[in-house]
Fold this sequence. Notes:
Layout: E1 3-7, H1 12-23, E2 29-33, H2 37-48, E3 58-61, E4 72-75, H3 91-108, E5 113-116, H4 121-132, E6 139-141, H5 145-159, E7 166-167, E8 170-171, E9 179-180, E10 186-187, E11 190-191, H6 192-199, H7 205-226, H8 231-245, E12 250-257, E13 268-276, E14 279-283, H9 290-314
Parallel strand pairs: 1-2, 1-4, 2-3, 4-5, 5-6
Antiparallel strand pairs: 7-10, 8-9, 10-11, 12-13, 13-14
Amino acid sequence: xxxxxxxxxxxxxxxxxxxxxxxxxxxxxxxxxxxxxxxxxxxxxxxxxxxxxxxxxxxxxxxxxxxxxxxxxxxxxxxxxxxxxxxxxxxxxxxxxxxxxxxxxxxxxxxxxxxxxxxxxxxxxxxxxxxxxxxxxxxxxxxxxxxxxxxxxxxxxxxxxxxxxxxxxxxxxxxxxxxxxxxxxxxxxxxxxxxxxxxxxxxxxxxxxxxxxxxxxxxxxxxxxxxxxxxxxxxxxxxxxxxxxxxxxxxxxxxxxxxxxxxxxxxxxxxxxxxxxxxxxxxxxxxxxxxxxxxxxxxxxxxxxxxxxxxxxxxx
Length: 316
């Protein structure tokens, strides 16, 4: 059995995640949970009608008791994202939402892996570790995986190469302090600067900064156009779930607890992470150049500040 629960399944992100899971025939059992039970019921019924096009699975909606013994619990529930505000803005509201539901979810599925999608994802990943009491390996945030996909997409468009042949990461916070690790970037195994030299092309520092800034802001452009980002994050979460359930041991930039990364510990943010059936198998601290180290430390400092705010809210 591969039982997955999506909490917040009635929202746009939760719906996209559920559809991506079903379309790829990943779960054998899928439970949709939402504060709006009517919406969750409708989504479950709609997804059941995919039966002729997917593997057999049991899809239903329900409350926390229905989620019992889930293998993976995906949480996308939270205050809605708005245009032109930081992802950290809804922090206090989402701390309250998580306090109200995560302990019961953990109690009903003591062996589950929690996969956090709600923003600010790094802070809420850290909060979930605290609320569940689970080992750090079993609480994972979506982190900068989607940001990394955007990086690969834009570079692929610029240099006329498939994103699948681009290896690299956006690292740090899923937010304003994330950064591209240019020193780690490879095009089909060729270091980025060597690739540029081989092709006789240039990609200046200002162009690199412009691209990073675009990646930081593009989600808000999408929010302004259609009210939220959902399709790409849905597929990225299905990809993580598939990697966990099938023990693929792939490396993704995901948010989880760091320990002694350039002097920082006890916060969650994204570094290259090996994922498998037990959750986080390894979290790598790559060798960055001096400028990237400073960017990473700035991201850590931001996460320390907001993690402190989170704990203040938690203890009220």
